[in-house]
Amino acid sequence: MPKLIVADRTIDCKLAVFDKDGTLVDSRVILLELARARRKSIEEVGGNEEAELWEKIVGVDLTSEKIDFHGPLGTAPRRDEMLIAAAAFYLKGRSWDEAKQLAQKAYDSADESMNPPYGSVLLDGVATALVNLKNGGLKLAVASTDTHNRIAQSFRTLGIATLFDVFVGPEDVANCKPAPDMIFEVLKRTGCRADETVMVGDSISDMKMGRSAGVGVCIGVLTGITRRVQLEKHADFVIASAAQLRTR
């Protein structure tokens, strides 16, 4: 069985499941680009008032480039955020049915306006670490609140897609993080067991997903939205970056 080195400890495992934003790619860069595209589309199908209200609802201020990483933009899957965004149209006088239709139209238009890798920028050292893990015999997977196609297209553009055995997005499961569904789907597709799997992520939600799925080890990284003192309450290990992971 492959041996993963984490903080000078050796862990026997066959599969490493990674979160994407904040773990493999810079979450701030990708969220700002996504927010700009969605705000522009909200304004086009509604108006400036709706767009300003949308910013408040999803937790972003594009003028100051401030993001609430724990808010809807930072944590919610697209399908949930889109329903929340519909509130901006509803509060400005649209019927709820019309509000949902306008939100759908705006989000679809925003997606169409963006090109791979959709603002994804790999964190320093991550690509090298992933190659090492793959060459060391580990299976690799991504479980993210981003959509399956966006994950795959982003990583193809970044040149790392072939390193992964499985991509799982929110449309692939009934329940998103912190429910265990995403990891269960990864296990089903890879044929691995939970006890021979490690979960690597930057959020408490990632750690809770790993715990509820029964993975062998949960590893928190400090490249995303959560501080060490918070991660240490839920993770078996907390390291500076996924770039530090390696195989023996």
Give an overview in words:
The protein is of the alpha/beta class and 248 residues long. It has 2 domains: 3-26 and 120-247, HAD superfamily/HAD-like (Rossmann fold, 3-Layer(aba) Sandwich); 28-113, no CATH class. Helices cover 44% and strands 16% of the residues. It has helices at 27-45, 48-58, 72-75, 78-90, 96-113, 126-135, 148-158, 181-190, 204-213, 228-231, and strands at 3-6, 9-12, 15-18, 60-61, 66-67, 139-143, 166-168, 197-201, 217-221, 237-239, 246-247. It has a 6-stranded parallel beta sheet with strand order 7-6-3-8-9-10, with helices on both faces. The longest helix has 19 residues, at 27-45. The mean pLDDT is 95.
Number of domains: 2
Could you tell me the strand content as a percent range?
A: 15-25%
**Mean pLDDT figure:** 95
User: Which secondary-structure class do the elements indicate?
Assistant: alpha/beta
Major β-sheet annotation? 6 strands, parallel
CA(first)-CA(last) distance? 11 Å
Radius of gyration: 18 Å
The DSSP helix count reads 10
In a few lines, what is going on in this structure?
It is built from ten helices and eleven strands.
